[in-house]
Every structure is written in structure tokens, then in C-alpha cells.
Amino acid sequence: MTTSKFTLFRLTHHLIPAQVMTGGFIVAVFAMASLAVGDSDSPTSDQRLLNDVKQLASDESEGRGVGTEGLKKAAEFIAESFRESGLDVTTAGGDAFQEFNINDGARLGENNSIEITTPSGKVLDLKQGTDFEVCSFGGTGTVTGDIVFAGYGIVAEDLEYNDFENIDIKDKTVIIVRRNPFQSNPHGPFAVGHGISRHAALTTKLSQAFSRGASAVLFVSDPFSAQSEREQLEEKLAEAKKEVDELTDETSQDAKNAKAHLRQLEKLLSELDDDPLMEFGYGGTRSGESLPAFHISKKVCSEILKDSIGKSLADLEKQIDETGKPASQLLPDCEIAAEASLEIIRVPVRNVVGVLEGEGPNSDETIVIGAHFDHLGRGGEGSLMPNSKEIHNGADDNASGTAGLLELARRLGKREQPLPRRIVFIAFNGEERGLLGAYEYVANPLFPLEKTVAMFNMDMIGRLVDDKLTVFGSGTSSVWETIIDAAAEKQALQLVKKPEGFGPSDHAAFYGKQIPVLHLFTGIHDDYHRPSDDWDKLNIDGMSRVISLLEDLVVATAQLEERPDYVEIAGSAALTRTGSRPYFGSIPDFGQETKGYAISGVAPGSPADEGGLKGGDVIVEMAGKKIGGLDDFDLALRELEAGDQVDVVVLRGTERVPLKVTLATPKN
């Protein structure tokens, strides 16, 4: 009978403690152990990987988007593969599925209205769809009271521009102009092209108003953009007319082309909408507490402004551009009565769980192996081709990791002798929405977290180039370094080690619960989050080598006499770094639906940690600003600097706890 890896371990491990199992010894054990389960890099294994990726990344799977039948079918496919591999698929309440609900946008309610009374006594009863539309990224509620014009709703201290500096907006409805001031100046302080800057985001402006206590926001489009677009079209139309007038042979192909071009321009100009309202759903939805937000027409806005202060919206835009100063002001004797009614759509999704029980004195301890199987469906939020409606098949992200999970389940499932510890395979859902499946599991674990000794994660393992594999979490246990190096040497892989346990995938949820983690990743590429991420671009042999490396890591970890120790590593690894915010060190809990910014943990040694914040806290105030969700926290943080000591108020259970946090320099 072939000697199993478990038998080899029993024969040798009592002679050499886990702490000194290093270098050549582990390589030798891995080399002998691989003979026990056959050649894991065989063409059969590669073909299985390819078939699984093709299945998961097919058009029939609809990009595995939330709410699609394709995502449901993918879950069933994974569950059946687990069952065929010999895994127990009954531990999640009798089947393989851990069910939970996630946010999938919003729908309009029945009662949405705006009525404005101007100083002259005129009552404007606005018509939805013509005069206003509800913003899906706002909140629901009824609003009455005063109205304030707050310019562009921008706070840019570095540019010495602040629309809120000399105006009180608390408990008032705020009119905010979209985009930025000074758009006519290509060298202006906000000039980054197409009127867009980091200050122009709708959710940023909403957060600026929310944090200052506003009761509602009325967004209005800036006059410059539409005027500029119309002028450009009119200029091109004049050129086209001149070209047609100068034709000498009206029957030539050039003449036909010129006339066709003229007709197209005339059509574009005739159909140009100078004041389109944002469709409901534009800008997505927002978690946490928010305030009602509407988009009103420029015509309505100018009517309100003229009746109140004698100036139109275009007049105020011009004033701001010419003076370089905000024109924010209370609109005297203007009152609003408005209602926004929208419902957040909650849809059911499922993690898929399969279990291999262990055998021996450590069999009550658990090792989790995970990979998320959801993707972006037909694009939308998260897509790097935001206007595309094509299926985003997500072959690398993350059909590759899911196929690796299925293959590893097959390999470990056919072992004659169980491993000394329980192995739990989890295909996570909702990762693209913020690690929701992983957070659901750690909040409602099927096996005790205090007995969970390690978590291994695969996310995008399909594009191995130059044998380089990135391993996140390499410093989260003192035993990892030796085990990882030995496995990498066997597979001839060059490792890029990132010691941090907090990072850009599902493993972060487990590290937040003080569980050692390792996350395998072959790198970002041009097809990331685009429809072009297809199966034919994957390196199947590279995938197989990554899976073989992980197999060795799992087996070696399962066979350790003592569980891996947990090591605190400050900071959070990231694929890319955005913004120039000072370092705070909180870990978002995207699985929470709460009024405030919920955190699942803090990075060890971070300012948040030093300031006394804890996992489970909900930040409701920072630096004197109200925090209703992550957007508000992010905005407040961007307005602060490293070295600032800020007051932070958290909800800890039902108690409001005041804390002070000294911000650090940004992490690289």
C-alpha cells in the first residue's frame, strides 16, 4: 500500500519539532509526500482545471453577477463538484449553502415629491421626471425648512476654496452644483479634464453636506458643461454647412459624405438635451445612514434663485469663476417640503461549503481554504469599462481561484488517510461587493473561529508570468516563511511576499479575527474587471503549479503538531494605493447595515489601535463631523493631515465612547 503523507508525518515528526522543521527537511517531506497522491501536475489535472474555468467563465454563467441565474448555477456546480470529491456538503444547515442577503441597488417608492415656496409667495410643485429626480445614492425621508445655495459643495483647503466656509447648513436643504468651478480655464485649480476631479464625485459632495448636518441635497447640473457642448456642436455645424455650400459637384461621393455629416450634426444638435436629469440608479446606492438627495433642473433652480436673490444659476457660476470665491448663501424666505421614498433591494446569495473531517487529536481544529466565485455580471459598478453591458466573464477574477478550489478539493478528497485537522472549503459570494461572503462566514461560522488555525485564499491565480507569485500574509505566522519557501522551491516559483494580513480579498475578514492567513495572487493585468477577462488567456500550467504549492502548504499546516501562531502585522497590503489620506488603520465591515461606519477590526499598532478602537465599533463622529457611512469617514479623513489628533466617537454596543486618535503618515 502506498505510504500516505499522514503516515510519513507520523514516522518523522516526533523526531523533529515543528519549530525546527526547516529547509531541506520540509522539501524532502514534500517530495516524498507527492508520490503518495500521484502526479498532481498531470494533463488530467490541467484538463480538469480548464474545464472548470470554461464552465464558470462561460456566457451561460452571466458573469456570475449578483441576482443572475448564472450565479445560482455556479453555486450549484461548485456544490456538486464538492460532493463528487467526497466532501461533506451537509454542514450548512443540511446542505452546502450558507445563505445571506446583500444590497443590490435600490427601487423607487410611491411617494416622491418636492414643493418649494419662493419669497414672492409662488408655490412650485415640481414634477418628477421633468423637474426633478430622486438620487439612488441618497436616503429616504421627509424634509421641510430653509434652503441654502452652497455652490459646488467643495472643500479644498489645499486650493484655498471652501463652499461651506461662511454658511450654516445645519437642518437646511442645500443646493449643490455638479462638477467644479473654473471649467472655462484649462489651467484652473480643478482642471483635470471633462470637469472631473476628486472633489466632483456626487457621493463626496453628499458627504460634505451630511457631515455638516444638512437635511437634504438638491443637485443641479452646471450651466457651463451644456453650453460648452452646444457651442462645440454649433461650431462644427457651421463648418459642415460651409463645406456643403462650397461643393462644386453635388453628385460626387465627397458631396454625399459632406451632406450626410451635416444631417448628423443637425440631428445631434436638435436632440441635444441641455438639462438632462440623472436617471434613478445613476451613482449606485450607499450603505449606512444618508440624507434625501434629488436632482433638480437648471430651469427650476434659476427660478428659485431669481425670485430669492435676483440672480440665475448661470450668474452665480460666472460670479464664482470671476472672483475665485464661493457664492454660498441662505436663500431668504425660501422654504421646501419634500419627500424621498426609495427601498434598498436585498437579494439572497450563497456561500458554498464543503468539509473534509480530520482524524486524530487535532481533528477539532479547522483550516479554511477559500476563493470567491462571484464577479461583475454585465459590468456596472466595479467595471473598468463602466458603459459596457457585455458579460464580464471573470475567468481570472475569480473563476481561476474557484477552479483551483475545486481541484484542491479533489486532490485532498481522494487521500486514503484523512489529514490531522479538518479542512473546510468555501466558495465565497459577494466579494466584489466588499468581501461580504467572508464577513458573513466569520460573523456566523460553521466551525468555531477560536479553533480555526489558518485561512488560505486564492484570488486571481490564472495569469502566472515569469514564475512570479505574490503571497499576502506571509508574516501573519512565524511558521509561514519556511513552509512557503520550501513549497515555492519545489514548484520553481519566485515569491513576492507581502507580510500584511489585511489586504484586497476574503482573507482579510479572517485576519481580522486573529487567524493566520495566506493569500495567493498572480497579478493584475489589462483585462482586470473588463469583458475581455476570458478563459483562453489563462496560464493553466501556472495555475496547476500554484495549486500544487497550496496543496503542500495545506498539508504541512494540517500536520503541524502545534497550530500556527498568530502574528500582528501593522498596515494593510493593497494592489494599488489611492488618494493621499493620512493613515488611520481601521478595517471596514461591509457586512454591517448600520448608521455609521462599522469596522471589523483595526490594524495592529495603527493609530486606530493606539487610540482604543476595537472590532465591532461603529464610528459615528470624527473631527466634529457626523459620520453616517464609509463615504463620510473617507471624506473626513481626506481633510486631515498626518500628526493631527482627532476626536472620534464610536458606538460600542449602545454606548457612545469618545476617543482620540493621532493620525500617521500614509502607508505605501
Describe what you observe in this structure:
- The chain has helices at 5-13, 23-36, 43-56, 69-84, 202-211, 223-245, 253-271, 298-309, 313-323, 395-413, 436-443, 480-491, 507-511, 540-558, 607-610, 630-638; strands at 97-108, 113-117, 123-125, 132-134, 141-149, 155-156, 161-162, 173-177, 216-220, 293-296, 329-340, 342-356, 366-372, 422-428, 452-458, 468-472, 494-498, 517-521, 586-588, 597-602, 618-622, 625-626, 645-652, 655-662.
- The protein has 668 residues and is of the alpha/beta class.
- The protein has three domains: 5-104 and 346-558, Zn peptidases (Aminopeptidase); 113-221 and 275-340, 3-Layer(bba) Sandwich (Glucose Oxidase, domain 1); 586-662, Pdz3 Domain (Roll), CATH 2.30.42.10.
- The longest helix has 23 residues, at 223-245.
- Mean pLDDT is 88; it is low at 1-41.
- Keywords: Aminopeptidase, Coiled coil, Hydrolase, Protease.
- Its EC number is 3.4.11.6.
- Residues 226-275 form a coiled coil.
CATH class of the largest domain: Alpha Beta
Q: Estimate the strand proportion.
A: 15-25%
Poorly predicted regions are 1-41
Strand order, main sheet: write it out: 1-12-14-13-15-18-16-17
CATH architecture assignment name of the largest domain? 3-Layer(aba) Sandwich
- CATH H-level name of the largest domain... which superfamily? Zn peptidases
**Count, helices:** 16
Provide the structure class: alpha/beta
Biggest beta-sheet profile: 8 strands, mixed
CATH topology descriptor of the largest domain: Aminopeptidase
Look at the structure and give the mean pLDDT: 88
Total DSSP E strands: 24
Shape: globular
Q: Span between N and C termini?
A: 53 Å
**Overall structural domain count:** 3
Radius of gyration: 29 Å
* Helix amount: 25-40%
